[in-house]
Amino acid sequence: MAENKLVLEKISESEGIAWLTFNRPEKKNAFSRALMAELIAMLKALRANDKIRCIVTTGAGDSYCSGLDLYDLRDTWKRKRRWDEEGSTGEIVTLLRNAPQVTIAAVNGYCLGGGLAVMNGHDLAVAADTAKLGMPEIIRGSFGAVATSTLFHTGIPFKKAFYVQLTGRNLSGEEAEKAGLVSKVVPEKELVKFVDELAREVASRDSVPLEHAKIAAYMEMDMEFHTALRTDDLVAHRMRYYTNPLSDVEGYLKSQRGGGSVSYVKPERKD
Q: Is 91 helix (H, G, I), strand (E, B) or coil?
């Protein structure tokens, strides 16, 4: 792959982890079309890599992503937009949601607008306590496309979601955790270390149940309860075709005596 300048890539197939770092710190990692094109290409390549079980994104410098590059956006709006246009934050969110890997956003500093939309597309999000999350689009006369749809599908209370969307005010990392917008908040200086340990723990698991856990969750979030139960049964049946979760019951039970453990040796995959 050619050298990437706008998204830095650190891949460890032996650990099963890929780190993607947005690299426009001088612009607080605002998403230009070129940066999004690089990110999309990387996500497409990673989703086909069976050795990677966890994808982490973060931002270089003092911000995760300050949103779309407004100068790029202004140029784009001069032409007629194609329906379902590629190269957008919507495509990035879709790739993250559909990736067989578990995705984690490590949110430092500003995470605004399009950056918030991309964060919402991850399965897990860990924010620094000093992070600033929000949707400033309403201030400049927009409403935050993609950021709105992903925000209202996070499951946080409507009143909280409307507060973020309609006021343009930012939430701190701690406020975002209380609202349920992020999975965990940690001190800024501990963010990378915490997420690295979390990614290693996730990546120590078998890729088959990880992928099927995502399939079940995203399929069932808007289903009626009994339909969701039936879907769970079907997804579990599909999973058991690829792996046997009961092949090492003794080893699993031993690993749980002190709580969850990354030292558990996973059962071998079925051929």
A: helix
Contacts of 215 (CB under 8 A, 6+ apart): 235
Residue 134: beta bridge partners? 112
The reply to whether 211 and 199 lie within a common domain is: no
In a domain, 245, yes or no: yes
Please give the Cα distance from 133 to 144 (Å, whole number).
13
- Residues in Cβ contact with 36 at an 8 Å cutoff, skipping those fewer than 6 apart: 87, 88, 89, 91, 92
Last residue of a domain, one of 184, 203, 222: 203
Whole-number pLDDT of residue 271: 42
Per residue in 99-123, pLDDT (tens digit) is 999 999 999 999 999 999 999 999 9
Rounded Cα distance between 172 and 132, Å, is: 5
Structural domain of 218: 207-255
Q: What is the CA radius of gyration of the chain?
A: 19
Token pair, residue 109, equals 């500093």
3-state secondary structure 62-88: CEEECCECHHHHHHHCCCCCCCCCCCC
* Same-domain pairing of 246 and 178: no
256 pLDDT higher than 70: no
Amino acid code (one letter) for 143:
F
Q: Is residue 102 part of a domain?
A: yes
